[in-house]
Amino acid sequence: MTRPSWRLRRLLRARSGVAAVEFALAAPLLLTVGLWGVESANRAVTQMELSQVAVLIADNASRIGDESLLGEAKIYESDIDDLVHGADIQAGNSVDLYAHGRVIISSLEVVPNTDDQQYIHWQRCKGKKVYASQYGGEGTGLDGSLVGMGPTGQEITAFGGEAVMYIEVAYDYQPLISNTFTNFGGADKVLTATAAFNVRDNRDLSQIYQRDPNNPDQVLSCDKFD
Question: Mean pLDDT highest for which of 84-88, 130-134, 173-177, 182-186?
Fold first, then answer.
């Protein structure tokens, strides 16, 4: 038996070796699943952070205002400026909330001289993302069209003489790896979160004040995107 023939027969009978071909075939699938898992986890963490920010803003918005033993607590434009600044710090640099998202603060109240007709008295917004409130702007409900704010059938409503701070957060998800994995499975790129708290104190609901009318603080109106 010649040496080449012997080597060939030995090779055909061999049962040892590496699974290079199988690994090469399976590697793309395993890599895709692994990267998608990492992106899904990051997306879930980002969604949780946005939900926490929405709750933080709603809770703090329900508490702001100058305390007074003689009358109703007044809120100022500077209070809202501080509120949104604190939310940005809470969200952290990894989210960069106002560069990629938008926060909408709405004061849900009862139309004066009505029993329970709901309307959005005032609204303040912050963030570069072009996104409008899902319930309308200031004054929505004065015609009786607003049932409340929240999912259909589960709307939140205010009581007479009180207000509900309703927060909407919208954010363009920033992928950790690639948009390819962000859109895998038809996931929506825009993440949203909402939260609501009743105003805790007896608040002056007539308006939002300026501490110094001669040197007014900026108004975070919803026609600005910054």
Answer: 130-134
- Rounded distance, CA 73 to CA 62, Å? 11
Measured from the Cβ of residue 16, the count of other Cβ atoms closer than 10 Å reads: 4
Instruction: Classify residue 120 by its DSSP letter.
Output: E
**CA proximity to 72, closest of 198, 200, 166, 159:** 200
Is position 175 within any domain?
Answer: yes
Over residues 6-28, the mean pLDDT reads 69
Count of domains for the chain: 1
Ranges of H-type helices in 62-144 = 77-91, 97-100
Does residue 86 lie within any of the structural domains? yes
Please give the radius of gyration of the chain, using alpha carbons only, rounded to the nearest integer: 28
174 pLDDT higher than 70? yes
| pTM, two decimal places | 0.84
Among the listed residues 82, 86, 84, 43, the one whose alpha carbon sits nearest the alpha carbon of residue 65: 82
What percent of the chain is helix, strand and coil (3-state, nearest 5)? 35, 20, 45
Report the SS3 class of residue 196: strand
Per-residue burial over 119-146, b = 16 or more CB atoms within 10 Å of its CB, e = otherwise: bbbbbbbbbbbebebebbbbebbeeeeb
Q: Is residue 207 part of a domain?
A: no
Give every CB contact of residue 38 below 8 A, 6+ residues apart in sequence: 176, 177, 181
Q: Name the residue range of residue 142's domain.
A: 26-198
Is 45 within a domain?
yes
